[in-house]
């Protein structure tokens, strides 16, 4: 494993992706797949990590849900051919976390989601967390959804993020999408409307536009400052994490397919957020929302952290 990360932001990125792989179904020990001296780590989880795999075929098999059986040895099959298969690995479990086009080759929406992926792509399917006994009772609410939304998305229990992996013959890239959009349902995997926010923020704003700015401004101080600002900025759209706030009114105001203005308005953001400070386990975030005729501007601090005995 390489040692090209030393400061806290890059260490945090690396640790988060290693932990994410460990928590997959089936679990993946990522560190054993990283060829020594090839690891590169970004200072944010959206850009993630890249490395050369020790064994690309082994990594592809594990991402596909087929884990090695300890101590298993290949059993030769007379004639081979179509009957030949790797009997040293367990079959892919039905609840495997990672999804590729091999699992659902006819899913056009999933195919579109891999449009910008180089090599063989895998996305983590999001599943809601198990419901505890306490959650079976109504959750105590204070204030309206509008007030709750004003406090942003730091520290929320519902985290709709997703691991995204691209594997080429001598290169693997992994990052965590801030907006997951592949949802596991009993009938298979579906792409949710959250894909639109992912497209605008993570593919256009924080990848294409940011990299274009970086090319124009260079790696000097000004360029680093501007790129850092873009990385901390997010446009907010109606999606799963804000209960699709404001979307119903926008859709209901569309008079028909010919109403280009109404459709365009429905696709506009309802607000924006900016990460003022990213601490080890929490974030200080400024949030602005404007929808259904009202506006809110707040600063919130949230996350999962042990402060003042909070755990």
How much helicity do the residues have? 25-40%
Number of strands: 12
Task: Please tell me how large the radius of gyration is.
Answer: 22 Å
- Report strand %: 15-25%
Whole-number mean pLDDT: 79
Q: Which structural class best describes the helix and strand composition? A: alpha+beta
Distance between the termini: 33 Å
| Shape verdict | globular
**Which residue ranges are poorly predicted, with pLDDT under 50 across at least 5 consecutive positions?**
none
What strand order characterises the main sheet?
1-2-6-5-4-3
Order of helices and strands, N to C? HEEHEHEHEEEEHHEHHEEE
Question: Helical stretch count?
Answer: 8
What's the story with the biggest beta sheet? 6 strands, antiparallel
Describe the structure.
- This protein is an alpha+beta fold.
- It has a domain at 1-69 and 93-126 and 161-192.
- Helices cover 26% and strands 21% of the residues.
- The protein has helices at 8-22, 56-63, 108-113, 145-149, 195-217, 221-232, 247-252, 260-266; strands spanning 40-41, 49-51, 98-99, 120-124, 162-168, 171-177, 182-185, 188-191, 233-236, 271-278, 282-291, 294-303.
- The strands form 3 sheets. It has a 6-stranded antiparallel sheet, covered by helices on one side. Strands 9-10-11-12 form a 4-stranded antiparallel sheet. It has a two-stranded antiparallel ribbon with strand order 7-8.
- A hairpin with a 2-residue loop joins strand 5 (162-168) and strand 6.
- Helix 5 runs antiparallel to helix 6 (221-232).
- The longest helix has 23 residues, at 195-217.
- The two termini are 33 Å apart.
